[in-house]
Amino acid sequence: MFKNYLITAWRNIIKNGVFSAINIFGLSIALMSCILIMLFVKEEMGFDKWLKDNDRLVRMHTAYTMPDRAPFLTVRSAGRMMEAIRDYAKNEIETGVRLIQWSLTVRKDDNAFDEAITLADGSFFDVFDLPFVHGSRATSFNQPMNLLVTEEFAKKYFGRTDVIGETLTVCCVGRNPPSDVRITGVLKDLPDETHLNINMLFYLQPALFPPNNNILDTWTSVNVYTYFKLNAGITPMQLQERIDYWMNNESPLVEMSKDLLGEQSNGMQVTDFARQPVMKVTDLHLNAKKHAGNIGDITPMGDQEMINTFTVVAFLVLMIACINFMNLSTAKASKRAKEVAMRKVLGASRLQVAIQFLSEAIVIVFVALLFAIAASELVLPIYNDILGKQLALRLFNEPDLLLSLIVVATVVGIGAGIYPAIYLSRFLPGHILKSSKSGESGNSAKLRSVLVVFQFTTSIVLVIATLVVYGQTLYSNSVDVGYQSDNKLVLNVRPARENLPSLKQELLNIPEITSVTFSSEAPTQDNENNNQFTLLGTGEDGKKVEPALLNYHNMDYGFFEAYKVQPIAGRLFDENYGSDQMTSVESDTIEPGQASVILNESALTKLGFSSAEEVIGRTLLLGEQQLNVIGVIPDIHFRSIKFGIRASAYMLNSDRFQVANLTVNSELLNSDKSAEIISKIEQVWKTNVPLQPINLQFLSEMMQAQYQDELTTAQLFLAFSVLAIIIACLGLYGLSAFTVERRTKEIGIRKVMGASVKDIVKLLIWQFSKPVALANIIAWPIAAYAMLTWLESFPYRIDQVWLIPICLSVGTLSLFIAWFTVGTNAAKVARKNPISSLRYE
Amino acid sequence: MLKLHNLSRVYQTDDVETMALNNVNIEIAQGEFVAIMGPSGCGKSTLLNTIGMLDTPSSGEYWFNGEDVSGYSEAQLAVIRKQSIGFIFQNFNLIDELTVAENIELALLYHDIPASERKQRVSTVMDKVGIAHRAKHMPSQLSGGQQQRVAVARAVVGDQKMILADEPTGNLDSGHGQEVMEMLQALNDEGTTIVMVTHSPAHADYAKRTINLFDGHVVTESVKAA
Prior knowledge:
The structure holds two protein chains of two kinds. By secondary structure, chain A is of the alpha+beta class. Chain A contains 26 helices and 25 strands. In chain A, the strands form four sheets. A six-stranded mixed beta barrel of chain A has the order 5-6-11-8-10-9. A six-stranded mixed β-barrel of chain A has the order 17-18-23-20-22-21. A four-stranded antiparallel beta sheet of chain A has the order 16-24-15-25. In chain A, strand 2 (about 60-65) and strand 3 form a beta hairpin. In chain B, about 35% of the residues lie in helices and about 30% in strands. Chain B has seven helices and ten strands. In chain B, a hairpin with a 2-residue loop joins strand 4 and strand 5. In chain B, helix 3 packs across helix 4, helix 3 (about 100-110) runs parallel beside helix 5 (about 145-155) and helix 5 (about 145-155) packs parallel to helix 6 (about 175-190). Chains A and B meet through helix 23 and helix 26 of A and helix 2 and helix 3 of B.
């Protein structure tokens, strides 16, 4: 019996060449999209799942939501929290560990590299049970300053993994001089799917830190990563309740908040303005961003929304392909009506007939799956390139992947085949055999039109979404950031802190370099330094002004001039005044420091001033420092425009300088020239900062990198929506081929009556224009609503008006594509000799 | 009106060559009523289709109203066809999705005729063939005889000078067959040239001349005594 089904199924696939090709091709493309998206989703969702006891590991974040202040969320926490909470919540917590991430220079012989190092409490391996290649946790990580490295790291420095006992020179922990450290163990390389960033792991020595330091010995400075391992059977929720209780009743924050907030704390609990939310380690990759603004995570994090969006896209593409199958099978049902009738005459039940057609659908889907797997292998390199990932399709190593593909294919087969099966098995044999009728009812034709409308609505929404995402990305790149970013190089000068003046002088000696100016951050670099600035005296309206939380940067003389930022009031930093530079206040003096500050327009507004002139000459208090407001500059986008403008203060504290901003007087894009300039800069670096790696970047590249995420999303969106359109068009092609076939007699009659080829093509095109036009009318409001909602998250976004031309052009394009698809079929039959079509019966 | 000179039509399939018409010479004058008879497969329908310009000859000349149309393009033939020739088929060939009136109107749709005049002409011709009361019905709701009347109406609504009928009575019972023949007779009396393929000697009797075909040749021609 089943063999008979398979034979009929196979012969039908062969006999209906075009239809089968369309079905298989469409389903292959859809399944390929599905596989690619599944691989991506699987990797993103699989982060840290390989960790032992991962369901018991949590990380503790910090959220400060003080009244009248912008909320401050971070994935880090304060240094004293871990021990306090671990000891308090003994019933919930088995153990905990703190990690500190630093960037240091590591030297071996003449090679020097910047490395991210991790300092961890001795309990590290009680939480993260990472496997060793050489050494063991008992022998290699049992006392302060033990150093573990990964295999990859060992190979990079020594060319082998067996490196226990070798030494490296690191520089510098705190303000200590460079020191030699001995490697005590080698860890197996961590998989890519982790939020952990461990290359060099030090056993943390608290004695290295002075008392009252703001890393370990603090309740409020958030500079460490805190992880807990829960007792078996404890949920993160239970721990959360325990921590909240402790925060509100037992923690030192109860007293501290009373001191800090004064009357404002009345009637409030600590957790109303300071929380320590915990999150499962396996959720971090996708959800830490939402939980804690992603501030402080070192590895790039994923985005749950992107995962959800692409899962929906994969589903829609599959739906479109399934609809093709449904439409084409019911459309050509008339051709199989006789077969169904004969099978029933010979004793087949309706169920048996239905099962036959269903198995046909499943056979086709599985054939398509084979093509899809092959196609996925082909496009994976490109896909990985766009995503910046190393995804691979290892079907036989990952049985769950293979199994899920089989499940998906079966579900798709049933989804696509169930309606045709029910529809075809309903034919009544007597009726069909007697009247040689097709059994085609008006309802199934109507349903086909509805499904075509659905396909095109979906495709059009996807294409409009793609264009909006692309448009927004291009727009983000083109927004006037408020400063001149051309011809700029950014040099990390942290390792050269002692000889900045000589470095600057020698860089200026390079003829192509027109200016060198230092700053705490270059444009585009992340900065979350905020502080409370208090206006002395009264505001513009004569009332006392509340202290304002301002973002702050430090920059040298000439910074704003180099970036061509003009003050709208007052002046910029000027060496001739001699009063701009901030000097650190010695703790034993009572004399407050005197220095200058420049504000941006948003800060002006935040301090309650409407006129820039008014604020010049006023004094802001920042800690012990009294700052004289000397100038106001326009709002400039120091960071990616997606973060918007923040109220900012710019000061001149040379202790904070981290980068040098170099302006070059020739077009850097000219590659010959840029290579020459770079080698000159490297020469200067080598003589001034020997044995330290150089870190030099083009500002233009740094600015582009900010939009890489959006660009990736846009590219993927584009790829998948183009695939969706192709599949929908294939379906339309098949359907029009069928319609043309069914209407052959009518077309013949019309031709005999004098219709020209053009008349016939027009007639058929109009028939198929209606569903596509209807799809547009349905798709436009859906797409517009979805994309306007999406755009709301961007402080700077393309004008809503743009949606109109986008919708109209997508509409026109969709009609053109439909016309082209249908037109080729129509023209073919319209050119035929009408007699052959009239004899067709 | 038309003249076929040494006209042949060869059908070519992969390995078989079929001579459907072989050196046929026929002349038909304006206003004639000609019946074409012969056994199945003798080339009757091919001859009719060639006359109707639905099929093109493989060799020979076809003069229509003084022009040799044998080399004309599909588009040129379509123009002559829609102006001068009406068709009636054995299986009616009405479009199932259109009403009676719409089916008849179809013949005018591809001429530049304003809608109001089309309506006028359709209703006149429906009266003439006695189908007006069925104007809004679908072909499937009509009897065979009624369907063929619609087809006749469609063939003449454009004032065609010649009607080609391919076994117009083949699917009808004798009563309805006679009705259709009388209708054709009446049209011929009004001056329309009629060329009809038929198997029925009785119906061939309506014609003034009968051409007998056998294996693609004209075997005999007989003219009915007036």
